Amino acid sequence: MDWDIVIGIETHVQLRTKSKQFSGASIKYGSEPNSQACLISLAYPGVLPVLNKESVNSAIRFGLAIDADIASKSIFARKNYFYPDLPKGYQISQFELPIVGKGKLSIDINGNSKDIRILRAHLEEDAGKSTHGVIDGKSGIDLNRAGTPLLEIVTEPDMSSAEEAVTYAKKLHDLVQWIGICDGNMQEGSFRCDVNVSVKKKGSDILGTRREIKNLNSFRFIKQAVDYEVNWQIDRLEDGKKIEQATILFNPESGETKSMRSKEEANDYRYFPDPDLLPLVISDEDISEIKKLMPELPGEMKLRFEKDLGLSTYDAEGITSSRDVTQYFLKLIDLGANAKLSANWILGNLFSKLKDKDLNILNSPILPKQLSTLINRIDDNTISNNAAKRVFENLWNNSKKEVDLIIDELGLKQISDSNEIDVIVDEVLKNNLAMIEEFKSGKDKAFNALVGQVMKASKGKANPAQVSSILKEKISK
Amino acid sequence: MLNLSLKELSQALEKKEFTSVELTQFFLNRIKKLNPSLNAFITVDEARSLAMAEKSDQIIQAGKKSILTGIPIAQKDIFCSEGWRTTCGSKMLENFISPYDSTVIHKFNDVGAVNIGKTNMDEFAMGSSNETSYFGPVKNPWALDCVPGGSSGGSAVAVAARLAPAATGTDTGGSIRQPASLCGFTGLKPTYGLVSRYGMIAFASSLDQAGPMAISAEDCALMLNVMTGHDEQDSTSLNRKKENYSNSIDKKIDGLKIGIPKEFFEEGLSSDVEKVIEEALKYYEKLGAKIVNISLPNNYLSIPAYYVIAPAEASSNLSRYDGVRYGHRAKEYDDLIDMYFKTRQEGFGDEVKRRILIGTYVLSAGYFDAYYLKAQKIRRLISNDFKSAYEKCDLIMGPSAPSVAFKSGEKQEDPLAMYMQDVFTISTNLAGLPAMSIPAGFVNELPVGLQLIGNHFEEAKILNAAHIYQKNTDWHLQHPKGID
Amino acid sequence: MSINKEEIKKIAHLARINVSQTEVDQVEKKLVGILALIEKMQKVNTNSIEPMSHALDINQPLREDKVTAKDIRDKSLDLAPHSEQSLFIVPQVIE
């Protein structure tokens, strides 16, 4: 039987603020345990929350970036449950009336654009961390992370494959960094995805029961977890068994998903408006102030590149696919490299190398300065395209070297001096009279062979365009 | 020293008639003598109080005193005070030494007032008789077999028995005004948000408000001048210009329109108390005020709405007492969940548990709309009643409590009867209005309080009306026998 | 609407309040009484009424994003019933 896969994602984005969501404690990563647990993080009797302005601004930035409604009035609510790393016994979150409403993020799937609808994004606070086994049979609680500002971004179930889920996650990961609201550090947990997966009979309108894979903090894990989970669900259904709604964890070592021990209280979080926090009111003026400070968004930049730099739609899309790629590209342009050539080299040779080595462009062994010099040398006819590829290989392997030095060492400099080429052409013509006759009798191939001879004689350094025009001129005399 | 007002004490300190240390020692001695029978204080720390007094004497010597410098104030044990044990009347916090000062304490420290001790209270401020305290019941100095009211019962008795010149209290549903009525002194609950809640241990966050408890309206004004002010640490703190409540306290009240809600004189009010209140109102007429009949048609819904909203908020506010980071933790337990259960079983008293259960119930899935949302709508109706009423009058007056002090133990096993104690006070908490109780007479030698309710921010008007009454009467100067 | 023993056990669990078999009758009696008191609300028509969460109609103030809190770790660990290695220690948390 054929199945449709239905995926929705909830992402916890840690906001790049200095202090916590509701207190003046630092959110720096990796500090001594509990050294950033202030009176409020510890939920001492009598302490009260006051909302961080920067996280509100971050949420507004995100709302603007996905073209969403930003609520003129939003409400903070308490989500009540007991857990040792949740000091108040409730998490402050938003339930009804979140700060960011419906929006969308478009992703590129095999060259086609697909809109993923964002249902909502709301502000909340992170919990602390429990470490197990510090002392035998006990857990240790570190509240440094408790109260860290989060923006939870919730999609509609619009993705239909692991690839789409990963593409969406990557795009979102890139966007939140692009607009400067998150450092994107996935190892440190700054970007974590809960992925809801269900399957249904192909074409059916009836959604299957979903299971939620919690806390995935790498794109690879998202792919592996979704693939595993989809197969598991399909196998089960094809065996005539039922799927029960569940919260599950992905084990990267086994590559399997596993149901968490079911929480005894079946999700009765008793949400109610937090009486310690008043309605958050955002005016149109607040929004337009923030709009002024927004960086140019990928979509806007793509149009500009097409219009002003003459990039093709395909190239402009590729170059703006991620903030890191765009920044790499813009550095080349700043260094005077030709825009079209830059786009070609990044999306072509550089991307294929990076992909081979599973590297981010940020960690490219070839620096923007080197690639821009290389492109300039093609552009000013110092080297041929083929020679450039050799230089590129060389750069990739000996990243420290100057481009011009490699060109010299490999002797790749093109001969563009017509006198020099004249001499070589004359020599070649003198030794290949038969070929000239063939050409004159109508065999075009003979001309290409002559060009080849000249190139060979110049050890590949002659400018091919010049060679062919001089040849033509001399033969026709 | 015993019967001087705050102003008189301040003047005496200024004139060096006595020092703050002498004054503090005087009240510490009274506490030593009388507290064993009254149980008004949970924590007394002579050394700390005297050290504060010494510092205050230095400020006075340096000529830098302000009005409350050097004056001992009793602090309800709901206010976190750095270095002091702060229990909130609960076993849960029996050994909790607060690592920080609440804003209220901070403000008193700032002006050099002396903390004379932490007063007894109903556990987590839940009660109207001060019988739910883990540290034992507080006795009413007018009749030791009677309750002092609650939840600020310890502060009430500290003022009434002159164990301190003045005290702080908090009022979520009447916890300043009802004990003021039952113990015969003056107590004010300000407009919600006027006094910062930071560091004041939360019972029901949207209703809790701190206020002064003292002999007279004049003293309450002096206390309020210190306690109010915007606090950036409390999101619900009002950002408005600080007022001086003493400035207009002596204004004539000619033509003051006093609204009398008929609902305050219907069922529930004891007829003896009713007579005293009517006398007081007649007296106001003599002082130039006009009586206007008004109606608060939804007042009967205030107790139902309150007993949804307050427990709901409390159930969540009290979740932090889990034995993980501070406070009580059970000695023996099998696992994490058992630790939670045993810790909270041992740490909370019956009334607190009852309210946590009610609060959890009304917020739980399937009941939220019928209870919590409904109560919030009723809250709006009650608030609207007051809005209409203030179109017809300047102040509203009526009884503070339905009866005089009742016998200890009398209502302890009957929560519903206990809850009715606040039938005249709760609606103002729901609406966030300022309200006051002042002594207005006696029934069987037990004091009766008159309640004055103002519109939002009209503390000055209430204090003015109370002061004019107190200038012409001496009910507030009566004090119980056997405390001299 | 009223509460039964089953529901009392459910909410007691949610609230981490132990209600033993011997107490449950007493608790039920008292809670039923309180709920009966609350029940008066249900007769009132509140269809067009906006719920009121706060006493005053004011908006949430915002805090500048600055680190202002002091490190109180030593004090906070001292106050804890059980702390070791700078952590608050509890019985093993089972995921």
Describe the structure.
The complex is a heterotrimer of chains A (477), B (484) and C (95). Chain A has 477 residues and is α+β, with helices and mostly antiparallel strands. Chain A has three domains: 3-287, no CATH class; 296-409, no CATH class; 418-476, Arc Repressor Mutant, subunit A (Orthogonal Bundle), CATH 1.10.10. Chain A is built from 15 helices and 16 strands. Chain A has helices at 53-65, 162-178, 219-238, 284-293, 298-309, 313-319, 323-334, 339-357, 368-379, 385-397, 403-409, 418-431, 433-440, 445-457, 464-476; strands spanning 3-14, 51-52, 73-74, 77-80, 90-93, 103-109, 112-125, 129-132, 138-142, 149-155, 191-201, 211-216, 246-251, 256-259, 272-273, 280-281. Chain A has an eight-stranded mixed beta sheet. In chain A, strands 5-4-15 form a three-stranded antiparallel beta sheet, with no helix packed on it. A two-stranded antiparallel sheet of chain A has the order 3-16. In chain A, a hairpin with a 5-residue loop joins strand 8 and strand 9 (138-142). In chain A, helix 2 runs antiparallel to helix 3, helix 12 packs across helix 15 and helix 14 (445-457) packs across helix 15. Chain A is elongated and about 100 Å long. By secondary structure, chain B is an alpha/beta fold. Chain B is 38% helix and 13% strand. In chain B, strands 1-3-2-4-6-5-10-11-9-7-8 form an eleven-stranded mixed beta sheet, with helices on both faces. The model of chain B has no long low-confidence stretch (mean pLDDT 97). Chain C has 95 residues and is of the alpha+beta class. Chain C contains three helices and three strands. In chain C, strands 2-3 form a two-stranded antiparallel sheet. In chain C, a hairpin with a 2-residue loop joins strand 2 and strand 3 (87-91). The longest helix of chain C has 15 residues, at 24-38. Chain C is flat. Chains B and C meet through helix 9, helix 10, helix 11, helix 12 and helix 13 of B and helix 1, helix 2, helix 3 and strand 3 of C.
